Amino acid sequence: MRLTLRTKTLLVVGAALALLNAGLYAIVSERVRRSFAELENRNMRENVDRVKAAFEEQLKHLQMASHDYAQWDDTYQYVQDKNPAYERSNLTDHTFSDLDLNLVIYLDRESKVVFATAFDPDARKRSPAPPEILGRLRPGDPLVRHVTGGGPNHRPPLRAVVMLPAGAMLVSAQPIVDNTGDKPAAGTLIWGRLLNGEVLKTLSENTHFTIATERADQAESPTLSPIVAELTGSGATVVRTLDAKTMAGYALTRDADGRPALVWRVEMPRQVFEQGEETVRYLAASLALAGLFSVLLTLMLLERTVLARLRRLVASLKLVGAAGDTSRRVVEEGRDELGDVARTVNTTLHAVHDAQRVQQESEARYRALVELSPEAILVTSRGQILFTNSGAERLFGAPAGGLLGTALRDRIHPDSRPLLQAQLGGLDPQATLSGSMVQFGFSRATEAQIVTLDGRVVDIELVSVVIDYLGRPASQALIRDVTKQKRVARELEQAKEAAEAANAAKSAFLANMSHELRTPLNAIIGYSEMLEEDAQEAGQDDIVPDLKKIQTAGKHLLRLINDLLDLSKIEAGRLELTMETCDVADLVRGVATTVHPMVEKNGNTLRVTCPDSVGDVTTDTTRLRQVLLNLVGNATKFTEKGEVALVVERDEGGVEGWVSFHVRDTGIGMTEEQLGRLFQPFSQADASTTRKYGGTGLGLAISRRLCRMMGGEVVVKSTPGLGSVFTVRLPVAGVTGDRSGDSTAHPVS
Q1: Mean pLDDT along residues 624-649
Q2: Contact call for residues 735 and 657 (beta carbons, < 8 A)
Q3: What is the pLDDT of residue 363?
Q4: Torsions phi, psi for 686 (to 5 deg)
Q5: pLDDT band for position 749 (50/70/90)?
Q6: What is the pLDDT of residues 373-401, one digit of tens each?
Q7: Does residue 154 contact residue 147 with C-beta atoms inside 8 Å?
């Protein structure tokens, strides 16, 4: 299928935007869903806490009701003398029903039961107190709140849950004291209320959630068992998603003995999740609309600036081709690439028109090639060529009928045969394809090379289609000559190399501009210094600061130009090194003296360690001093009220040994990402660094290239907030690298 340029552009732009939108959607939707999931879990935990608080409120109400009876003088007297009048007046079914009690127990000082009964408020019927409660009523049990023997102290009131065979019971245990609280406790009052459906219904109505409970000691289901284990281990609320519309939160309540007793399950509709999904759907729709708008806008711009002009150019070419008149010219529009194509076409047409008069035979061949440019088509079966057209005969250089009866694979270049055998089944379905693959209409394509009858190697694009030919399966091969496309690709590569050569020429030009750029700047700086001296002598102190600003700006610009010219010279291979013997200790002392004002400006201290045993090195002293001044200056600039250290060491490894210069600071430091951009020209750690500290980003790039030209290297280690360490490592015996500062080093001859 032939695709127009418009269609191809639409497909490419649409595919690119689709991939971009898909990636953006995946990232944003994942973040949105994760945020809503966290919000949903937090909301669920808060709701579980509300349910637990409501349950705790039930316990508190029970405790408050029992408190009135436990601090009543009549109750205090009753547990001592067991008078029947108290029982007839207070321990009645009506009282138990009004208080919604299922258990009432009175204990005396000796922890003996004075009164105990279980009660069903609905049936208004009493029954014996549960033996599970009575069996534990002994001194030291959490339910016994008085001190046996009538001691002056008693334990504080208790509200808790006690598990019974009939279910969970809310229990309040109070020490029985008089109204004043001065006398020793006379016993313990225990009230209980079963956690039945009515209580859960009340909790559900108060909190507006679906609430259920499970016994922790009977949680044997595969779903609940791991939840109980997690609750027991962490004590925090556990959240689980039940389905797409419901989620549940689980919490644990321990009994009076501190053992896991009751598992609460609170169900809540996933409204937050649904809101998150709706947000994601809105996001997808917005991205789709934005992508569609971008595609349409791109097509409109492309149509106006390229496609319409290209169609006019093609139409002009078709008119020329249809008329066969090379004296006609296509329309030339614009001064861009399409205009260049039109002008090139016209130039070509002009050359062809001139050549027509002297090369009639070549003109005939050219016209036949333009007008009769069919692609090569042939049919093979059982390894033999059964049919060819004139295009195939022309492509292979064969006479009419000269290919019939021969094998196409014999005309395939030996290097391409394995590829065709693997991808096209050897071009013969009956001979090389399995029965399951012999299907009419099955098509495959690849690129290969052929050898013509006269021995030429031609690049082709080959498509094989399995067809029915004379009642039997056969392979129809469609072959297109792509030699021209291959040649264009090679020409593009040559054009790329030419562009790189032009860039090198640019660098060489800048390197040659050293004198023309430096001379006027030196004049400006010199004259401003002279004017400053004259002004001071003439007493014109008011203009001295302005003259100093001119000097500072000129020197800054001169340093910038020096850096630019150094970089250009390095890139052009024009920077020459002067290798000489250098006393390292003297060089380091000179660097320290030069940077001392910069160090004091930021309140830093400079520590220099350079033992005399380091000795001499063979290097370019000026360039080494430039590198060290740049590194120490940077360390001082990015450090405030800290320490900058310059440490020199000699390493005797290798034949001649190496000298290492370590510049350490306690400044702002850098991240791994910032380190990756550090030695690139015109690049600093980030934009904020440039705004705060200034600089062009050339110093480190030049320093690294100078070190490599001197046969060494500069590396850096850094930790954000702690500082950086730059290390310059140079050979002692004078080694130079490539003049561009990019290749490995070699010894000086």
Answers
A1: 90
A2: no
A3: 45
A4: -160, 175
A5: very low
A6: 467 887 888 778 888 888 888 888 888 88
A7: yes
Cα–Cα distance between 467 and 218 in angstroms, integer? 73
Tell me the C-alpha distance between 251 and 267, whole Å. Answer: 12
Smallest CA-to-CA distance from 378 within 365, 390, 360 is with: 390
Q: What average pLDDT does range 328-348 have in this prediction?
A: 81
Q: What are the φ/ψ torsions at residue 437 (nearest 5 degrees)?
A: -100, -10
* Identity of residue 558: L
Cβ 709 vs Cβ 579: under 8 Å:
no
422 by DSSP, 3-state: which? helix
Task: Please tell me the distance from the alpha carbon of residue 78 to that of residue 114, in angstroms, as a whole number.
Answer: 9
Q: How far is residue 588 CA from its own chain's centroid?
A: 45
**238 φ/ψ angles, rounded to the nearest 5 degrees:** -110, 130
DSSP letter, residue 412:
B
Q: Contact 250/227 with Cβ under 8 angstroms?
A: yes
Q: How many CA atoms lie within 13 A of 737 on its CB side?
A: 19
Which DSSP state fits 482? -
Neighbours of 221 (CB within 10 A): 11
Closest CA to 165 of 208, 194, 204, 203: 194
Within 8 A by CB and 6+ apart from 108, the residues are 79, 80, 114, 186, 187
- Tell me the HSE value of 557 on the side-chain side, using a 13 A CA sphere: 15
Please determine, for residue 402, whether its predicted confidence score (pLDDT) is greater than 80. Answer: yes
Task: Give the pLDDT score at 665.
Answer: 93
Evaluate if pTM is beyond 0.90. Answer: no
Task: State the Cα–Cα distance between residues 322 and 371, nearest whole angstrom.
Answer: 9
SS3 727: strand
Tokens of 207: 């909190």
pLDDT band at 192 (very low <50, low <70, confident <90, very high): very high
CA 682 to chain CA centroid, Å, is 26
Tens digits of residue pLDDT in 247-258:
888 998 888 888
- Residue 126: pLDDT above 60? yes
Helix 360-371 vs helix 337-356: crossing angle, to nearest 10:
130
Cα 641 to Cα 254, 301, 337, 541, 719, distances in angstroms:
59, 57, 59, 33, 18
Would you say the C-alpha torsion 657, 569, 633, 726 has a positive or negative sign?
negative
Residue 578: count other Cβ atoms within 10 Å of its Cβ: 9
645: which strand partners? Answer: 607, 664
Tokens of 236: 């925090």
Rounded to an integer, the average pLDDT of 481-496 is 85
Q: What's the Rg (C-alpha) of the chain?
A: 48
Dihedral sign (CA 278, 284, 288, 289)? positive
Q: 605-609 and 643-651 as β-strands: parallel, antiparallel, unpaired?
A: parallel
Exposed/middle/buried for residue 746 (C-beta within 10 Å: 0-12, 13-18, 19+): exposed
Query: Stretch 170-196: mean pLDDT, rounded?
Result: 89
